[in-house]
Amino acid sequence: MMGEPARKYETFLIPSGNKNHLFVVLTEACPEGNVLLVSFSTIREERFYDSTCIVTPGEHPFIKKPSFIEYRKARIEKASHVVKCREATYWFPHEPVSNELFTRICMGILDSPHTPKRIKDYYRSNAS
């Protein structure tokens, strides 16, 4: 995996505050060298969650509680930054998502009312 580009389906545990969040890469690098990532977040009572793409425990080995895709916090990152973080073990590679889950996550980008317009535009231009 050393030096290899970030790939669709690939997941990472990325430090955020005092915990790690699971992110999945949704696009190959675009001509500008960027990739799109979205994160999983646990569904908690009395807190907002986007019901567009619910992920149940076991759909990915890391997911132990009912979760959702946090489209409102989708990120466009330099593919080279993803590789550097992976190689420095700052971002921890995890199991890739399944084809079925990947398809559901991608469909939700355009379906979710919480996906920022710039993310929808990027996805439309760079999904393959």
Describe this structure in words.
- The two termini are 22 Å apart.
- The chain is built from three helices and seven strands; from the N terminus they run ββββββαβαα.
- The chain is globular.
- The protein is 25% helix and 27% strand.
- It is of the alpha+beta class.
- Strands 1, 2, 3, 4, 5, 6 and 7 form a seven-stranded antiparallel β-sheet that branches.
**Helix-and-strand structural type:** alpha+beta
Quick one: how many beta strands?
A: 7
Q: What's the helix-strand series?
A: EEEEEEHEHH
**What best-fitting shape do the alpha-carbon axes yield?**
globular
Distance between the termini: 22 Å
Main β-sheet description: 7 strands, antiparallel
List segments where confidence is low: pLDDT < 50 over at least 5 consecutive residues: none
Strand content: 25-35%
Q: Quickly count the helices.
A: 3
Mean pLDDT: 93
Using only C-alpha atoms, the radius of gyration works out to 14 Å
Topology:
Blueprint: E1 11-16, E2 19-25, E3 34-42, E4 54-55, E5 67-69, E6 75-78, H1 79-87, E7 92-94, H2 99-111, H3 117-126
Antiparallel strand pairs: 1-2, 1-7, 2-3, 3-5, 3-6, 4-5
